[in-house]
Design goal:
Blueprint: H1 2-26, H2 29-67, E1 69-74, E2 77-82, E3 91-93
Length: 111
């Protein structure tokens, strides 16, 4: 029993000495490590935030492509089509508040 107590005391004493040495060595580098950890944390949070916003934007964009319809003149007939179905040569009848994606040539006309 005495041997066990002496052994535990010796291990505890050596651990305390080791910890003192580690603390002395780390005193100057704790601030640097804290700054590095902060930079890594901010970078990860920003990257996750950007990723989630991009995912949300792509979902909204696909929803717009599936739901938004345009009135176009195609082959002399006035029809309503989805924005994603527009092709070169379609004449879009753009009303107030509507917009087109990509490049378009505008010709003004009135009823």
């Amino acid at each position: 029993m005495l041997t066990l107590v002496v052994s535990v005391h010796t291990v505890a004493k050596r651990l305390a000495a080791w910890w003192k040495t580690v603390r002395r060595r780390l005193d100057g580098s704790i601030e640097g490590a804290a700054i590095l950890l902060s930079v890594v944390w901010v970078t990860l949070v920003t990257a996750f935030n950007d990723w989630s916003k991009e995912k949300q934007f792509r979902g909204l964009q696909s929803r717009i492509d599936q739901e938004q319809k345009f009135t176009v003149v195609r082959a002399g007939h006035v029809i309503q089509i989805l924005v994603s179905e527009m092709v070169v040569g379609d004449i879009a009848q753009v009303k107030y508040g509507e917009g087109t994606s990509g490049s378009a040539e505008a010709q003004l006309a009135s009823d």
